[in-house]
Amino acid sequence: MEYDVLSCLVLPLTHQEKDMEKFERNNAGRIWIPHISEKQLQELAKRIRPLLRFAEGADGLFLSPHGFLYYIKTVSIDKRSYLHQPHPDCRAGGFSKLGTIKTYHAYSNHLFFSPSIAEVLTFIFNKKKENVIAFEIIEGPQTMDEPEAFEAGYHTALVQLYGRA
Questions:
Q1: pTM of the model
Q2: How high is the pLDDT of residue 100?
Q3: HSE (CB half, 13 Å, CA atoms) of 50?
Q4: Residue-wise pLDDT tens digits, 8-39
Q5: What is the pLDDT of residues 32-63, one digit of tens each?
Q6: ω into 65 cis (within 30 of 0)
Q7: 63-89 pLDDT, tens per residue?
Q8: Nearest to 55 by CA among 45, 47, 65
Q9: SS3 for the chain, per residue?
Q10: Which whole number is the average pLDDT over 101-129?
Q11: Beta strand pairing status for 49-57 and 134-142?
Q12: Do the beta carbons of residue 154 and residue 32 sit within 8 Å?
């Protein structure tokens, strides 16, 4: 927690602020997660939604790399991982693929891949991808591709961007 000297209130840090603190502590000489304003982040979140693949089984839908794309029920964009216990909302379709981007995701334990929606949106904004309406992490975590990132406390992922067909 960070203390605001002027008001003597304890202010919780956002995930992005924690990531920046982690960068400063690591002093790796590189900014792994670009900074954007909270307002810009909220505007992106209204327009761009995460997708996950689900397949049908005897007990309903379950996560599957070979399933169909689904929007997930709303979660906080700062939630440490939207991948943990997601709930499918509705099936998604009618997209065109806009390309892929590499993203970095801070970890507190290297064994757990915990990307937040905010982290992905930050990279979409930074890459000036304006027609994006949805995204899907298609590879992650990648740890051996960039040992410097891993040693600095970041997993890397490959993200597929989607726009309207």
A1: 0.79
A2: 95
A3: 25
A4: 333 344 555 555 555 444 444 677 788 899 99
A5: 788 899 999 999 999 999 999 999 999 999 99
A6: no
A7: 999 999 999 998 889 877 899 889 999
A8: 65
A9: CEEECCCCEEECCCHHHHHHHHHHHHCCCCCCCCCCCHHHHHHHHHHCEEEEEEEEECCEEEECCCCEEEEECCCCCCCCCCCCCCCEEEECCCEEEEEEEEEEEECCCCCCCCCCHHHHHHHHHHCCCCCCCEEEEEEEEECCCCHHHHHHCEEEEEEEEEEEC
A10: 91
A11: parallel
A12: yes
The letter for the amino acid at 80 is R
Task: Using the CB atoms, write b or e for 109-138: b if 16+ within 10 Å.
Answer: eeeebbbbbbbbbbbbbebebeebbbbbbe
Q: Would you state the structure tokens that stand for residue 148, as one six-digit string?
A: 């410097």
Altogether, the residues listed in the chain come to a count of: 165
Q: Which residue has the tokens 């590879």?
A: 139
Listed by start position, the domains of the chain span 2-164
Q: What is the mean pLDDT of the chain?
A: 83
Beta bridge partners of 126: none
pLDDT in tens, 94-106: 999 999 999 999 9
Six token digits for residue 26: 């690591």
Place of tokens 């993200």: 159
